[in-house]
Amino acid sequence: MVYGLVGLKTHCKLAMVVRDEPDGIRRYTHIGTGNYNPKTARLYEDLGLLTCDETIGGSVAHLFNSIGGFSRSPVYDELLVAPDTVRTGIVERIHAEIAHRRAAGRPASGSRPTPSSTRPSSTRSTSRRRRASRSSC
Fold it and tell me: Could you tell me if 98 and 66 are in contact, meaning their C-beta atoms sit under 8 angstroms apart?
């Protein structure tokens, strides 16, 4: 159990089981979007990923070490983690998708905003993506 860092709200939907198996240590990692609450399930879907991918498991283990105070490096191979990389990571991915779609001659498409994506930098990138979609049609 990890309790978090002083001054930061820790709201993590991660779980990891580490097992010593015959072929070596294996990390089973669960990453979720919600708390699987039956009341909110009528409003939106929670998604979860259960994986034993070594890169994802390593990133989650690194995050747990950061939250627990054993390290404080904001760079993770497979995760976007607030407050360090979520906003910039989303904006970078939007720009990469626009470029990818344009290179393939396909329109870019958007999705509904979430509360954390309504900040000016995210909404500007979402607007660019929408304009790219219209100009590619």
Answer: no
Residue count of the chain: 137
**Mean pLDDT across the chain:** 78
pTM above 0.85, yes or no: no
CA separation for the pair 100, 8 (Å, rounded): 35
Is there a catalytic annotation at residue 30?
no
Q: Which residue has the tokens 């990469």?
A: 96
Encoded tokens for 92 = 């970078």
**Helices 86-103/120-136 angle, 10° precision:** 10
| Token digits of residue 19 | 């097992």
**Mean pLDDT within 32-37:** 77
Long-range pairs for 46-55: beta carbons < 8 A, 24 or more residues apart: 52/26, 52/27, 52/28, 53/29, 53/78, 54/27
Distance (Å) of CA 127 to CA 88, 104, 131: 16, 20, 6
Are the CB atoms for 92 and 98 separated by under 8 Å?
no
Q: Name the catalytic one among 11, 62, 95, 100.
A: 11
